[in-house]
Amino acid sequence: MGYYEEIKLSKKSEQHLYVQLYDAIKNHIIQGTIKADEKLPPIRQLAEILCVNNATVVKAYELLEQEGYVYKRVGSGTFVSLKPYPLSAAIESVRLPVDEDLSLMNRGQIQIQEHMVSFASATPTPDLFPVDDFQILLNEVLNRDKGNAFGYQESQGYFPLRESLVAYMRQYGIETKSENIQVISGAQQGIDVIAKAFINPGDVVILEKPTYTGAIATFKSRGAKIIDIPIREDGLDIEALEAVIEKYRPNLIYLMPNFQNPTGYSYSREKKQRVLSLAQQYSFHIVEDDYLSDLSFYHTENTTLKSMDQQDHVIYIKSFSKIFMPGLRLGFLVLPEKAYPRILAAKHASDISTSGLIQRAFDLYLRNGIWKKHIHYMENIYKERYEIMDQVIRKYILPLGITYHPPLGGLNFWLCLNEKFSTNQLYNMAVKKNILIVPGSLFSVDQKDSNCFRLSIAAVYPEQIEPGIQALSEVIKEYIESKDNKKRNTGVYTPLL
Ligand SMILES: Cc1ncc(COP(=O)(O)O)c(C=O)c1O
What we know:
The protein is α/β, with parallel strands linked by helices. The protein has helices at residues 2-5, 17-31, 43-50, 54-66, 87-90, 99-107, 131-145, 159-170, 187-198, 213-221, 238-248, 269-282, 305-308, 340-351, 356-367, 370-397, 423-432, 462-489, and strands spanning 70-73, 77-80, 117-118, 181-184, 204-209, 225-232, 235-236, 252-255, 285-290, 314-319, 331-334, 403-404, 412-416, 435-436, 438-439, 452-456. Residues 15-83 form the HTH gntR-type domain.
């Protein structure tokens, strides 16, 4: 409390008293002498200490609240929040994890040997890529545009492609304009430029728990304070979300509302609406990562938040990696009007522009309508794999006491053992039998061991699925038994008598 008594306010200064008080408290918060979640003194008490009117303190607190340094709890008072520290002030106090992120990203890249069955990779195998169509389109572009195809492209994206993306989006119920489209070199870059544009060290970002590894790494690399909220089968727990928003007043929340990675869960329509209402009420951006809404095998709920976004709060990211080819390094953002200048600056600083050659070829791909044929093809391929996978999980895995919620679309299946088990250990045992899974620890901010794991159908052929899952079930059985035996053996004493 001593630091409040030391605050000196000068009535002779040209600056209003409440601004001086605001500055003094703000500096204590930035320097950490007044800590996050600490309660500020009651208004009357501080006014007495500083010999000023109550109104001076009220106005200083209001300004601190407007700037995000404090928040009010109804009936309890005013408390210090965690954001937003100006960059220069916060950079010293926030660790920028570099090595940790690199290893996280690297661990996301799994080396697959030929004899392995990989339920780990969520990337389609190259035999599914529309290579022949692309060869024709690339030649067409080269004949038509010659050297222009190799010049720097507009940072926002090749204009004709942005126009075709507007038409493409219309098919998915999203009405937008070419001015609101930002072409990106893959969704991962999209997350990165959004983080660069909106996040300073110490700013709070809300993520789902578990979530996409690449998003964790990006937000960590910006020094964000990440709050993760457990996702349920029908989306985030809205009450928990609102409590966190109320407390931290974040700038951004990052979600995958359809066929979430890694769980495969989709938000109910009602939860989608409620998240949008919260964005309106608390004025934050929702980053919607739509890496896969296209693959809804039974036409279940897969509406995008962006198509429901009446108030322009959603930054929509579309990846083409899962439905076309990851090596194109192509995706796009649909931006709220106000977000555009910051995002454009971040994109320019990142790589100036996405490959002009690829943008031109992809533009023709969309204009010729060939994409529809390909998506239909991918849907059929994946639906077949999905159905086999669903059946064999029920046959071999569920009887082992494992829980599972069928995702009805997408590429990922999320399976959970009893809470006492470790899927890091299960991963190690499965690898020895040439089965690859992804342990849940990879999808959490703290990388803590988890009892859940992800299986994906992107890179397994139909004929591999049943033998692969049967072999995995044997590993799981062995693992559970070994744990149970260990338990039985511990704590047993033989009397010496
Ligand atoms: C949820 C999610 N977002 C983004 C990406 C990255 O996509 P891109 O290849 O378009 O950069 C992935 C890749 O797996 C993903 O799963």
